[in-house]
From TrEMBL:
Protein name in UniProt: Anaphase-promoting complex subunit 4-like WD40 domain-containing protein
SUPFAM superfamilies attached to this UniProt entry: Quinoprotein alcohol dehydrogenase-like (SSF50998)
SMART domains attached to this UniProt entry: WD40 (SM00320)
Ranges where the Anaphase-promoting complex subunit 4-like WD40 domain occurs: 155-208
Alphabetic keyword roster: WD repeat
Source domain of life: Eukaryota
Annotated source species: Rhododendron griersonianum
Pfam families for this protein: ANAPC4_WD40, WD40
Matches recorded under InterPro entries: Apc4-like_WD40_dom, Quinoprotein_ADH-like_sf, WD40/YVTN_repeat-like_dom_sf, WD40_rpt
WD repeats: 298-332
Signal peptide range: none
Length: 332
């Protein structure tokens, strides 16, 4: 997982699972275990914010405060949510989800309001990453009082929510679930306004398109037999619900063998023309959105690529690998 504030000078990286881009210079790396590091990857940028963060449990999600480059949210496997101040180099708030939902799978800050939403899950009984997830809990938190405000309604015993995404003004929240559903919430009312079955099985990642007339989903499809199951990317129209505008089968890079231990992710560049996806291979694909070309592949790591992100304004992207390496690449 990579986390990146919108303007910023940092990347936050969870090398084994995920990371985010924060500007162009500083990176935070968190392991699949219990610690994370923020460091400078550009010699021109001061290293004063470099730090190691000990969380005491596996780090599962990261998110920068959209309106600041100072606060980093960290979600863990024991129900913890920590707010780290990069200037003070300390945890300024330590929250806990409801005890029944210990796995904090995703965190998203509103781009406008001082709130964030946590997607937490109870524990399932399977062996793969998705099968280990149980039921979902979506909680809205106030970032001024650091208290829970409300729980978004999902119905009785809802499948786990794996990925969240706000639209540009924070009025709509999209949530993707392990049963293949996309849920859309009106944040002012705190209610679900629509939803549709986007995949046959679990969705790994969800993103609004750059013009916000569409939404991208990465998930599992196919029902007949194990051999026919594949990972697909779909771009869904938000003006004509259920209509697919563009799609790609990415099973060459995403498959059950390499998704058993982590969740696949994707990232759009600033123009919404190139889609970068994690990979069970040493290279990750970059798809041309709505194009007929297969696109290109990233430079190789020595193990699977488990997290990706684009710079918010520049033609730079980040890849993090299970070999514990991180690469920043410029693309024209």
């Amino acid at each position: 997982m990579i986390s990146n504030p919108r303007g910023g000078a940092f990347w936050t990286i969870c090398v084994a699972y995920h990371f985010q881009f924060r500007d162009c210079c500083n990176v935070m790396i968190s392991s699949v275990y219990v610690d994370g590091r923020i460091w400078t990857c550009d010699s021109a940028t001061p290293a004063s914010r470099n730090a190691t963060i000990y969380c005491g449990a596996e780090i599962m999600s990261l998110e920068w405060d959209c309106k600041s480059d100072r606060l980093l949210l960290i979600g863990t496997a024991d129900g913890g949510i920590k707010a780290w101040n990069v200037d003070a180099k300390r945890v300024v708030c330590d929250l806990n989800t409801i005890e029944a939902f210990p796995s904090v799978l995703d965190l998203k800050c509103s781009p406008v309001e001082p709130i964030f939403v946590s997607a937490a899950s109870s524990r399932g009984h399977g062996t793969s990453y998705m099968d280990k997830l149980g039921f979902a809990n979506l909680t809205v938190w106030n970032m001024k009082t650091w208290k829970a405000m409300t729980v978004l309604p999902l119905g009785e015993d809802p499948p786990a929510i794996t990925s969240l995404c706000f639209n540009h003004n924070g009025k709509i929240l999209a949530a993707a679930a392990t049963d293949g559903m996309i849920h859309m919430f009106d944040m002012s009312a705190g209610l679900q306004i629509t939803g549709w079955p986007a995949h046959d099985s679990a969705i790994s990642s969800i993103l609004f398109g750059p013009d916000e007339t569409s939404i991208f989903s990465l998930g599992i499809d196919g029902k007949a037999s194990y051999s026919s199951i594949f990972f697909g990317i779909f771009e869904w129209s938000l003006q004509n619900q259920g209509k697919v505008l563009w799609s790609r089968n990415c099973s060459r890079f995403c498959n059950h063998e390499n998704s058993g231990h982590c969740r696949h992710e994707m990232a759009l560049d600033a123009d919404g023309r190139r889609l970068l996806v994690t990979s069970g291979s040493v290279r990750a694909p970059i798809y041309q959105v709505r194009g007929h070309m297969n696109g290109v592949k990233t430079l190789p790591h020595s193990a699977a690529i488990t997290t990706v992100d684009w710079h918010p304004t520049l033609p730079l992207f980040l890849t993090g690998s299970a070999d514990h390496s991180v690469r920043v690449t410029s693309i024209s």
